[in-house]
Write the structure tokens for this entry.
Amino acid sequence: MLREFALADLITLGNASCGTASIFLALNYAVEPETPAYIWVAFALLPIALILDFLDGYVARWRKKKSMLGADLDSLSDIVSFGVAPAVLAWALGMRGGLDMAVLIFFVACGISRLARYNATAGLLTDHSSGKVKYYEGTPIPTSILLVVVLMIAFTQGAVGQNFWFGQTEILGMGFHPLSLMYLLSGCAMISGTLRIPKP
């Protein structure tokens, strides 16, 4: 099967691999919080995934190897690296209340929906003179790297778990960290039908 893959597709799989490794390391940290190296490497892998996500498109255009397979691989990889991985990082660092998890699940579902919509409508939004999509509807899922940066800053300040900024509360008996609202806002921005961002 690998014989059917172009160089850009292998780079895309590198993106997915970084996201998957980040998830595993975040879970390791949740089990062994006395080993902070796990979470630091989990953080570091996602910017690498972002670089690979940018690089695969350039390589595909340079080698004139753009394909439906590559587009689908890109979306599936982005779900792992910029949808599931940031949510698991938040969970590993202490957003484990019932409402926290509901927000994180909503965030991942929004990311999946946003990518599915993009794949389904990319042909309609393409400028046929340049062959490129003119704009994004909703924020691209890689913008979730900003959430990871916030978590990383919180971790460096010891503001995780019981000490997350804005504290924690209970609503209807379910734990909730107000900081998790950034995931709710990010999810809503991704599925927005009115927010249009020019594609570089």
Remarks:
- The helical segments are 7-31, 37-62, 68-92, 98-125, 145-156, 181-191.
- The longest strand covers residues 135-137.
- The chain has a mean pLDDT of 89.
- The radius of gyration is 18 Å.
